[in-house]
Amino acid sequence: MAKQEAEWSNRLSVRFLKKHGYLEGGWRYGGIKWTYGMSGNESSIGFNVNIGGDEGDYIKLQYTHTNRGTDEKESMDFRVELTTTPCNYGGKRYWFICPLSKNGRYCGRRVGVLFSIGKWFGCRHCGEIAYAAQMRGGKYRGSSVCLPDIERAEQEVKRYYYNGKPTRKYRRLIRLNEKFNQSFMLMAAGLDKRFARFADFKKK
Hints:
- The structure is a single chain.
- The longest helix is centred in the C-terminal third of the chain and has 24 residues, at 168-191.
- The chain has one domain (4-200).
- By secondary structure, it is of the alpha+beta class.
- It has helices at residues 14-19, 132-135, 147-156, 168-191; strands spanning 4-5, 11-13, 26-36, 41-51, 58-66, 73-86, 92-97, 101-102, 105-106, 110-111, 113-117, 120-122, 129-130, 161-162, 165-166, 196-200.
- Helix content is 22%, strand content 40%.
- The protein has four helices and 16 strands.
- The strands form five sheets. Strands 10-7-6-5-4-3-16 form a seven-stranded antiparallel β-sheet, with no helix packed on it. The chain has a three-stranded antiparallel β-sheet with strand order 2-11-12.
- A hairpin with a 2-residue loop joins strand 14 (161-162) and strand 15.
């Protein structure tokens, strides 16, 4: 079975939620939109994030799935649990708990990114999603930077700011992201493949 490439997959990350303030507590509604390269086609999801409530921390994903074979549309509304781990210098880091099952066994992996898998969202292990560098021996690494590099760098960041300034590891993460994004845009244009741009349309 051919694996799907992570770089070309619709995805939602904890880092995106944190960056846009969805993890600051309480009940928050928002969404994310993907636009596909030359075609200009779009898809989107809405979500509700609940932090600190009586039912625990979670995110509810709401979107419409279209069956490619029949063009039938199905309204999706399902919950993904959130968990936390402590940071070395205080605070906590949020993670998704993968809600999917594979071969009859519940996944439950703690992950930072959810990928679109059929009509669901789950971890890349359940969706058999691989990074281009893994599938092609690194041929399409973005100027020597790929998503696994960014994920490892993100996990190393224990504190984002100190005395009002970004920490050394956070600055490195920012540089890797910028380098990858620039190379990714050039690669997508050169290969005439779809390029996902993210647009936050949260409502307060």
